[in-house]
Amino acid sequence: YFINLQYIQDFINGSWVACYGKPMEERSVKLIWSAIVSVFSIGGLVGSLSVGYFTIKYGRKKCMFYNNIIALAAAVIMGCSRKAKSFEMILVGRVLYGFSAGLGANVHAIYLGESAPRKIRGIVTMSAATFHSMGKWSGQFFGLSEVLGHEDLWHFLLAFASIPAVIQLISLQFFPEAPRYLLIDKGNQEMCNKALQKLWGRKDFKAEIEEMLEEQAAIKGEKPKSVWELLRDRSLRWQLITMVVTLTAIQFSGVSIISSYAFEVFREAGIPDLKIRYVTLGVGATEVFTSITCGFLIDNIGRRALLWRAFSCMASTMALLTVTLYLKDTISWLPYFNIFLIFIFIMFYGLGPASVILPLCLEIFIQSSRPAAFVFTGILKWTEFAVIGMAFPFLLAELKNFSFLIFCGFCLCGALFVFFMVPETKGKTMLEISEEFNRINICRLFCRKDTQNHGETILATRL
After folding, report:
1. What pLDDT, in 10s, does the model give residues 238-277?
2. Contacts of 300 (CB under 8 A, 6+ apart)
3. What is the distance between the alpha carbons of residues 419 and 309, in angstroms, rounded to a whole number?
């Protein structure tokens, strides 16, 4: 996304000429470019589907190790595509990149959450979101024409992801397997204790190990669930509803569209086209900064409070942006105010949903359900990402600026749901969180039975 579109299209046409001796039709070039963009999502979906299988079979650490080898292979294939004059290599590399991203993001979050002390579990787990934001920002930075985003170096930009892959391959040698996985899944208390001492320092971890043993006892030797078993388990119904509503509110909050629409807003404010990329770089930097700030708040304020407040502010910003875009031609300074609103929206997104969703997903599911839960959320995320990508151009064509009101509605629904229905998870054990959700399920069950009994009583009285 951060490479000049024309460079890739020229390369596609040039490689076709080198192979077949005649230029490709413009329509075919655009079709191949669309395929290059979309196969990343396909790879991401397949990677997300594989989380449960690979984390159970190989463990968290080995899974991350093998995943980085895939990322490294993708980088080499894409980096060599120009020398080989093969656009097909870019397609293959994009699929592997997507698979690595879909698998790696989820496994990374699971490993962090299962390795962190309870008191700082929030900031440790959400650091994955911070580095995700930094990855997007670095792509924008290195994609500048003054860095790697020009005609002679674009293939190096495609291979840039090899650097973090190599760093993680080396650094993983100094980290142990996730302690919770070693004890709860593998039943190896000695290895768990060694992993805790390596990660947290040499002291007594009796209380932490007892907590893990309680969770192991609660599972009662149950094998990790499949996605189908997860969906059929009534005791996990409210956790699944929480993830569906929260993830849907995030995906349909409009954050992915803001990035696309920002170019027009910046242009209307009078910023030259060549300078807009630098303003966009500032938007990315804002997300990184607010994500880091959220790290200092998440274990103090809590997940629930950050989520519903951020969703509320995002809804208000979207509503205000709809009004100001409609009136932009009537007041001279409104285009500049629109730029300010975009920065505000990204700031609230980084302070809440972008950072909190990973800790929340990890904490509301116990060990036996967690891999399947990440598979489910991965499917949901990638599917909704594809839907919003396909639907928004039509919404924008029909509704113009008023299409933002739809995203405002999703943000508002997310805020109300989290405020009224989601319990706080800060500082609680996985079992305590699970018990809170169980109480919600039990209350719903009793309410349903009371309603049925009341209805039967009225019917009997009438008869």
Report:
1. 999 999 999 999 988 888 767 656 666 677 666 777 777 7
2. none
3. 9
First to last CA, the chain: 69
- What's the pLDDT tens digit per position in 210-226? 888 888 888 877 788 88
Q: Pull the structure tokens for residue 69.
A: 């080898």
CA 426, CA 233: separation in Å to the nearest integer?
Answer: 25
- For 27, the enclosing helix (H) or strand (E) is helix 26-49
Secondary structure (3-state) at 97 = helix
What proportions of the chain, in percent to the nearest 5, are helix, strand and coil?
Answer: 85, 0, 15
Q: What is the pLDDT of residues 166-195, one digit of tens each?
A: 999 999 999 999 999 999 888 888 999 999
Pick from 74, 20, 40: nearest CA to 28: 20
Highest average pLDDT, of 52-66, 123-137, 389-403, comes from 52-66
Cα separation of 106 and 193, whole Å? 25
Assigned token pair, 304: 């629930």
Tell me the CA distances in angstroms from 338 to 269, 328, 352, 407, one per residue in order.
8, 9, 21, 17
Please report which helix (H) or strand (E) contains residue 138, including its range.
helix 121-142
